[in-house]
Every structure is written in structure tokens, then in C-alpha cells.
Amino acid sequence: MSAVSNSTQSVPGLVYSAGKSAWLALAALMVTASLYYVWSEQSSFEAQLLLLGMGLGLCLYHASFGFSTAWRKLIVDRDATGLRAQLVLLSVGVLMFFPALGAGELFGNSVSGFVRPLGLSVVFGAFIFGVGMQIANGCGSGNLYHLGGGQIRAVPVIIGFGGGALWATLDYEWWTSLPQLAPVNLIELLGVLPAIAANLAVFGLIYLATRSFASQTRPAANEAGLFSRLIKGPWPMIWGGVGLAVLNFATLAMIGRPWSVALAYPLWGAKAAETFAWDLELDFTTYWMQPGRDTALLEPVLADAGSLMNIGVIIGALFAAALAGRLVLSLKLSFRQLVGGLLGGVMLGYGATIAFGCNIGAFIGGILSGSLHGWLWIVCAFAGSYLGTKLRPLFGQS
Hints:
Elements: E1 2-5, E2 13-17, H1 20-41, H2 44-62, H3 68-76, H4 81-103, E3 105-106, E4 109-110, E5 118-119, H5 120-135, H6 140-148, H7 154-176, E6 180-181, H8 186-190, H9 192-209, H10 226-232, H11 237-255, H12 264-275, H13 305-324, E7 329-332, H14 335-354, H15 359-368, H16 372-391
Helix pairs in contact: 1-2, 1-13, 2-6, 2-11, 2-13, 3-16, 4-9, 4-11, 5-14, 5-16, 6-7, 6-13, 7-12, 7-14, 12-13, 15-16
């Protein structure tokens, strides 16, 4: 492994590279070893969840499917490429999710969506999440696959995310005691088919509203065959949107709820607090007394579905980068970017926890669940993202 000095003056750091075969062998070993370890320590079910997370990581990396960059390009450059890919994800998703959620079961297993109240916790939490994702240069899922792709700059963001999420669990009771409107479930309110039609109509209106916006310049023709491109990438973002929708549906089938990234971070923060012997009396806070969370502190991290899938995203992105021959460990981080990463991470974690999720769980998961809080979340998060875009230069981000 060799070290190459970085010639960029504004962003000091090191870039570490190795041969493609060496990286691919290491990535394959990590995939195999992690699956075997989880299988032996937990069960085949947990290993399948890890594998599902790996598939999500591969999709995210090969399609460069993100939210912070996509929204920033929409704001700054009027480039709607990323937004349209998200509309594809949502369109495919509602066609798959709504019938299953309307029936209440999938392949004989009970399923339910993320249907949450509409209140100040969603408004404030989503807004600061939007600010944080811009100054941290990545959202919840984005920083996981950036880390898998070798971008070590994601580490401070993930640390901050865990810390902010832990902080939010201590304030959770206060936020959820504020006045709020009852949850609105469009599937129950309208019925499955009218709810699908209403959502598709809104997606169509958003597309029409941005029709005059720019689209990403088409890349040079890819001479590789379809199979080779599927394996090695890069993918059009729309492929990523379809892939993520299908794998999110697989998540619903396996664990009875949509994909969520942010749910793991409060647990990671709590486990870190236990490691440092911080007596926060977490067992008695409202957040950890919720159904589904009430036993999480007593179990190992590898027993948590959200944690397994997040770890899988990192490993899957690493494997995808190795397959593409683009895996390079990059530590390019100025002091201002370090501060922005930590601060932005705290905002991401705090905001996601009080707003019932991040861009994956609240925005995508909320809308695919037929919940109006998903729409409220995206409006507030996009407003925060607009402010965050203006603040990026303060933290060394272009």
C-alpha cells in the first residue's frame, strides 16, 4: 500500500491506494467473514439482514444515489437529476408498498409503515437535519456509503450523528409532549388505489414543475455490456432508485417495517455511553420505553436490525467500490471540515431522532407508508438544506 501526497492546497490530507485485485480480495474477505460471523453469533436471519444492507450499499455506491448533493444541485444549479431519481424511487415504492400495507401483511407476515404525528418535533427536527446534511456533506445513508467507498471524512459525521441522537433521546419526552396533530394515513383515509393515484399525481406535478430545470450531462457511452455494468457500475441514478425501492420492499417483507437508517444511531450512542460508563439512566427515558426499543439496550448491537443493515451498507459500498476499481482510502479533511462534520453530524442525529427519522426513514419511509408526516418532513428538511447550502463555505465546503 502506498501513500500519495495530496496536491490540493485547500484540503490537506492523504490518499491511500492499492492495486484493484488487492482491494477486491480484501472486500470479498470482509463480506464473507462478516456474514459468517453474524450467522454464527446470531442466526441466519441476522446474516440475511446484513446481506440486504450490503445490497443497499452497492446500489447507493454504483448509482451515487444521494440526497444532500441532489438537493444542493437543485438549489444552486437548478439540476433536477437527483430529484427525478428520488421520484422514481417513490413511484415504484408506492406501487409495491401501498397494497401490502393496506392488507396489513406480506407473504403471511404482519407489516406496518411509519405513520407518525405532525408536530413541532417534525418541523424543527427535519429543518436542522437539512442544515446538518449540507454542512456535514452527507445525509444518514450518504455518509455510510461514503465511508464504505473509502471517504474517511465520514467518520466524524457518524460520530456526531450518534452523539446527537443520544442527546435527542434525553429530550424526546419534551418534544413529543408538544402540541401536535394526529397521524394521517392516506392508505386508510383514501383506500389503496386512490392513495396510489394521489401520490403518483403529486410526483407527476413535481416532475412537471421541474421540467424546465437542467438535467445532468449524459456521460460518455459505456462500452461495457449490461451484466458488466450492473456488477462494476456506474449506474444511472434511476437504476439506483428502482434498486433501492425493491430492496426497501424486501426490508418490509423481512422485518415488517420500511428501511430506516436513523434508528440505529441512538443505540450506537447509548452503547458508546455505556462503554465510557456514563450514567445517563437511559432505561427510564421515554424514547427507550417505546415498543421495539424497550429491549434494545439489553441486547448486543448485532441483534438490532437497523444496526446490521447500516453496517451492511458500509460493507456493500466497499465491495462495490472494489468491483469498480475505485476504492481509495481518502483522508482529505481540513479543520473547518472536521468541525462541520462533527456539528453537522450532531444536527443530523438530533434532528432525525425527534422528527421520527431521517431522509430514509421519515421522507422515503414516511411517504411509502402513506403518512403525511413524510411530506411535512421533506418540506422542512429542504428549507433547512437551503440554509445549509448557504452556510457550507463557513465549514470549508464549496
